[in-house]
Amino acid sequence: ACDKAGGSVTDHFRDVTKPIISGKNTKQEISDIKLTRYACYLITLNGDPRKIEVAFAQAYFVTQTRKMEVIEQRMAELERLTAREKLTITEKAFAALAFSRGVDGRGISEIRSFGDKALFGGKTTEDMKKKLGVKKNAPLADILPEVTISAKEFATAITTENTKRKDLQGKGGILNEHVTNNKNVRGVLIKSNIYPESLPPAENIKKIKSRHKKERLELDKRHRKELVEASIRH
What we know:
This protein is mostly helical. It has helices at residues 9-12, 37-46, 52-100, 105-119, 125-132, 146-165, 170-191, 205-233; strands at 13-21, 27-35.
């Protein structure tokens, strides 16, 4: 199994000798095999679960694998939450700048809408909401995958920077700038065979935040209980 998976058998299953004490305190060496964690894992997978040691090892690796899956899922969720928060901050900064350049609230919404249309290959914000099953008044970004959230944030950040650098004034110039930047970002994604309008929706950001909050409360509750139990024992 190790060899077929591309692993080095001699690296993971190392022949060694170890001394033992035999009768009359006589020392002698016997052959043994030193195993890496990977080797232990392969032996466990291919072992007979009727043997207590193998059954125990299988249970251990299943538990550890599940722990790693949970950790990896949590890390991915945190990265997406961070990207979403960054987009919110960038969009607020852009809105403040656009307002200072003579664009009202409605104009800012139009600029964002045209930007989305450029990013999603002609599909408007409302088109994407319908496609992904988002309520009319709910933010589209809350169900977008991390790569699309980051793309929107990057395009908005470029628009903000260029609005300052080019000293753009009014809705027209800023809108054209935002459309251009979203088209350019879309081009980068397409070169990697990523089409934003074709990606499936991700779990709603609000649900993730709610679940994380619940988990934190449960951990705090468990921690307080452990502290009380520890103080009682002492």
